[in-house]
Amino acid sequence: MASTDSVKQYVLGRNPNEAERLNFQHEIWTANIGFLLHPVISGTPRKADLRVADVGTGTGAFLISLAKDLPPTSQLDGFDISADQFPTGDSSVPNNVSFYEHDLLKPFAAEFLGKYDAVCLRLVAVAIHKEKLDEAIKNLLTLLKPGGHLQWTEATWLKMTELQTEPGASRSALASALKTFNDFLTSSGMAFSDAVEFQEKFKAAGLRAASQDVFSSDRLPETRQGFTQSAVGAVTGGLQHIAGFGGIAWSVDDVKRVRAEAEREIEGGKVYWRTDLVVTVGRKAEEDQPDHD
């Protein structure tokens, strides 16, 4: 089980409702990004026996989806600081998918070092302090084989905007909830707002060919409402969790009231949230290559 401190640090909380929301969010994000593994990774000649780690795996939705696209000879391992959301006992989990409890800020066990063709993360920066980001990347690189890729996907939460499809539509509850959530994360020193800086972080860590792709959260317009519903669940669920341990001035009842108002605002797609989804990819140098681009 996760410690009390780690539960507080992960501001979205861990419970069945959040697990369901994470699985839905995974589908929406994947639809708008258009891939699970970046083409520079999935196109490698080692695809038949690709080994992939998903760090901050949560419910394992990423790996379970990825297993459908890869041969059963691939090996997919999920790591998370807490096992609370692992799909334990779920018969739909493929045999080549495994889960391990591990804090990415601590060294990985020797059995995992240098074993992976790709190490992937999605929406993990919300649980990492800015001052620990370089340490996290350093730890992740130890998992990669020479020539392996690190892929990290985040959203630009501070740029998320309330947009309307109807004149006069109210968006005040959405704006208030998002500002309160972002203010808490910013004041807590989390790295959640650093997505656009990851490319430089990757280069500084010695990764080759570091690049970014930026997609709109509504690249597929039909996903707007689903993305917004999921994001409202994340923001207000997070605020309720934070209010529960006194992290914000709002009470739990205040958060529930704002959530109800926000859900009314987004009914029928009258108002929706839009932001950027940023995928940063870099390659670990081959052992016999000099360390430069």
Highlighted features:
293 residues, alpha/beta, seven-stranded mixed β-sheet, two-stranded antiparallel sheet, 9 helices, globular, disordered N terminus
Give the arrangement of secondary structure elements.
Layout: H1 4-9, H2 16-33, H3 39-42, E1 51-55, H4 61-69, E2 75-80, E3 97-101, E4 116-122, H5 133-141, E5 144-155, E6 161-164, H6 172-187, H7 198-204, E7 208-216, H8 224-244, H9 252-265, E8 271-274, E9 276-283
Parallel strand pairs: 1-2, 1-4, 2-3, 4-5
Antiparallel strand pairs: 5-9, 6-8, 7-9
Low-pLDDT runs: 1-8
Find the count of extended strands (DSSP E, 2+ residues).
9
Mean pLDDT across residues? 90
Order of helices and strands: HHHEHEEEHEEHHEHHEE
Fraction of residues in helix? 25-40%
Q: In this structure, how is the largest beta sheet organized?
A: 7 strands, mixed
Give the strand content: 15-25%
The gyration radius over C-alpha positions equals 19 Å
The dominant shape is globular
N-to-C CA distance? 42 Å
